[in-house]
Amino acid sequence: MVCIPCIVIPVLLWVYKRFLEPILYPFISPFINTFWTKKAVQETGTSDQKLSQDNGEVIANGSTVVADKKTD
Question: Are 56 and 67 in contact (CB under 8 A)?
Answer without folding.
Answer: yes
